TrEMBL record:
It comes from Streptomyces mirabilis. Gene3D superfamilies: dinb family like domain. It holds the Pfam family MDMPI_N. It comes from the Bacteria. GO terms for molecular function: metal ion binding. InterPro entries: CHP03086 (IPR017520), DinB/YfiT-like (IPR034660), Maleyloyr_isom (IPR017517), MDMPI_metal-binding (IPR024344). Transmembrane segments: none annotated. This is TIGR03086 family protein. Residues 11-129 form the Mycothiol-dependent maleylpyruvate isomerase metal-binding domain.
Length: 193
């Protein structure tokens, strides 16, 4: 894979930022398709995962970074997310980071592969958050198609029995599902409604 995933990652973070800006305080305790997370915990995970990939991009040990951002006040999620996504842009600015070997939760990989995996994660959590909030914004289908391609490449069904993987086995996509619905179904997620 020789793609530069940075522009896609930037678009994914812009989309997440727009969604986070729509979150109302009364929605924070609401359910998400990630059954172990409410909206507040999902936001914490999105921001924490973003901080992790910023540390990886800077050449640090991403595995030492907790994939949750603690201590964020309910009215500060947009600001907190903007801060960590700015860190990502800075830490991945050097083209050499794309070919550098980095360690991420699923192993060691060249930076471009690792960042592509984080595009998949970001886009997946975008769907989770959008579902949780009642789909307040139109989502970028190209991002979902890219993420689905990555998911199919790195998560074949026969590897999903690993309890360390945060994705369940694929489920049937709802009839007429868009790219986000197909991605969610491939990763074992079901819509809330």
């Amino acid at each position: 894979m020789s793609i530069d995933p940075r522009p896609l990652y930037t678009r994914a973070t812009e989309q997440i930022a727009a969604l986070v800006a729509t979150v109302r305080p009364e929605q924070l305790a609401g359910p998400t398709p990630c059954v172990e997370f409410d909206v507040r915990t999902l936001l914490s995970h999105i921001a924490g995962g973003t901080r992790r990939i910023a540390v990886v991009g800077a050449g640090g040990d991403g595995m030492a970074v907790r994939p949750f951002l603690d201590g964020v006040e309910d009215d500060r999620w947009s600001a907190a997310y903007d801060e960590v996504r700015t860190e990502v842009r800075k830490s991945w600015a050097d083209d050499a980071r794309l070919d550098a070997l980095v360690t991420v939760p699923w192993g060691e990989a060249p930076g471009r592969i690792a960042l592509s995996g984080y595009v998949m994660e970001a886009v997946t959590h975008t769907w989770d958050l959008s579902e949780s909030l009642g789909r307040p914004l139109a989502l970028d289908p190209e991002l979902a198609e890219f993420a689905l391609g990555i998911a199919r490449r790195v998560l074949p069904d026969e590897r999903r029995d690993d309890e360390e993987l945060p994705f369940d086995s694929a489920v049937p996509a709802p009839e007429g599902a868009d790219a986000y619905g197909r991605l969610a179904a491939y990763l074992g997620r079901r819509p809330l409604s």
